[in-house]
Specification:
Length: about 90
């Protein structure tokens, strides 16, 4: 998705992090790339999408494998709205 050592940020469905059918994708990401940061947003991350319809994760990947790199990971699933999750994210950054 990007040149070598470039970065890409995405918001995607969260299921790739948990389902066995995505095991090879997870192995590829961990074996060839570096997760710089990830915020597990869960449901209700976007007020325009009501209820529990879409559960998401936001992340930044670097197109370089750095096995010793320690990424920043946040679990924001307990927030019940876009605003609550944004406030939780800002608090974690501080």
């Amino acid at each position: 998705l990007t040149k070598e050592s470039g970065v890409v940020a995405m918001i995607t469905m969260q299921s790739w992090m948990f389902l066995s059918s995505f095991e090879s994708l997870r192995a590829r990401i961990l074996g060839q790339n570096t997760i710089i940061s990830m915020a597990h947003l869960g449901a209700r991350a976007f007020d325009s999408i009501g209820g529990e319809v879409v559960s998401t994760t936001a992340f930044v990947l670097e197109n370089q494998h750095k096995p010793e790199y320690k990424g920043a990971y946040l679990r924001l699933v307990s927030g019940n709205s876009e605003a609550e999750k944004a406030a939780m994210l800002l608090e974690a950054i501080r």
